[in-house]
Amino acid sequence: MKNENGIGFSSLLGLTFIILKLCGVINWSWWIVLLPLYWWLPVVLLMLVVWINRKRQQVEQDAPKNNPPKRSKFQERLEEMQKQRDNYSLKNK
Asked: How far apart are the C-alpha atoms of 67 and 39, rounded to whole Å?
């Protein structure tokens, strides 16, 4: 909620708390005094968690079902070399 000067309610409340703290009228901790200036932080974090969760669901839905992941050329070559090593060790026993 902003008025024509561009100062919102939370900014005005935070500024008031800072002035009252500096004048010694209130004896609150600074984190409580500055709390009205950080109301947006939990909202942004919640939006981020919801966005990440939706992206994860989309990835799970888009992933092919019951298909094993494709092996890279490196993995194929490694398996081939392991088989050759096993065959070689069996022949030399």
From this structure: 46
